[in-house]
Amino acid sequence: ATPMATMVGSTISAKNGVLYKGADVLEKARGIDVVVFDKTGTLTHGDMRLTDVVPVDDAVETDGPVADGGSSTSATDGGVLESPVDPVDLEADERTLLSVAASAESGSEHPLARAIVEGAEERGLDLETPTAFENVPGHGIRATIPRGEVLVGNRKLMREHGVDPSPVEATMERLEYEGKTAMLVALERDDGADREYELLGVIANADTVRESAKETVAELQARGLEVMMLTGDNERTGRAVGERLGIEPANVHAEVLPEDKADEIESIQSDGRRAIMVGDGVNDAPALTSAHVGIAIGSGTDVAIESADVTLMRDDPADVLKAMRIADATISKVR
Ligand code: ADP
Ligand code: MG
């Protein structure tokens, strides 16, 4: 890459809200074959809201796809949802479920955790403070509150602690088909010597897709690029969101552990294809480094921005196209 190209590119791009880092980025951003997007915080706003609180008894009673247990369900509009739980009138078991989950999650900075805590506070619940807290990356959390030890997370977290998630499977799947992130909640049962957990129920958060996400995917595909999604979220949730954005199921790589995101990029590039990775999270940092070009969302974490070659100042997925166009235009002009 020529320093001239970089200078021209930086000037053009600063005006356009696209920041390039390093001398050879403009050169690298040409000849791309695949664009891989992180889901949460990249294709979506990452601005989660608590939408569903379903105690285990309600989940078991309504073993059809359309549960209607008072505030435990919310209307869907076919998009990624923004339909908060009715703020008033939580029933007793709903209140217990939510306050246990939120108390445990008050030890976490994860966006899922913050949405749960906010959801509980908006409903006027008093939260307990965890005396012990453990993050289980890609799975959930384990925390000790005065009421006992709590697990909040996915099916795998439950199974690893001997909790059978099957009583709420139908509810989990319904929520996941809606594109929501559903989480199981279990509380330690006071059972003498052995620690046993009791499944309390399911809570779910929803996120909203960024305005330009769908048209960006379509335009990338129209240019002959392959578009993929990488997420730690459940397969069904990932596919539901992918479907709304025009990303085919085969191109949605879900349930990817944080430490495996970079490996996924390497395997995508293993046949010589060049990938752009677009991400925002701490989890995405190694993948941003592994990709031919890493692009960070401007409001993303510092680690993501440091690991990326390009930063999108406006958090707009459409600026991925702009970044590629600027690279094309600048390089051809200088040559
Ligand atoms: P991503 O940021 O790509 O969505 P993570 O690796 O952070 O993925 O999380 C993957 C999954 O692990 C989540 O979808 C959720 O099921 C579970 N999980 C992670 N953190 C938490 C948390 N604090 N509380 C509950 N579940 C969690
Ligand atoms: Mg993310």
TrEMBL record:
The keyword ATP-binding applies. Residues 60-84 are annotated as: Disordered. It is found in: Cell membrane. Its main location: membrane. One of its GO terms (biological process) is copper ion homeostasis. GO terms for molecular function: ATP binding; ATP hydrolysis activity; copper ion binding; P-type divalent copper transporter activity. One of its GO terms (cellular component) is plasma membrane. Residues 68-79 have a biased composition (Low complexity). The keyword RNA-binding does not apply. Keywords: ATP-binding, Cell membrane, Copper, Copper transport, Ion transport, Magnesium, Membrane, Metal-binding, Nucleotide-binding, Repeat, Translocase, Transmembrane, Transmembrane helix, Transport. Belongs to the cation transport ATPase (P-type) (TC 3.A.3) family. Type IB subfamily. This is Copper-translocating P-type ATPase. It comes from Natrialba swarupiae. The chain holds residues 484 to 818 of 891 of the full protein.
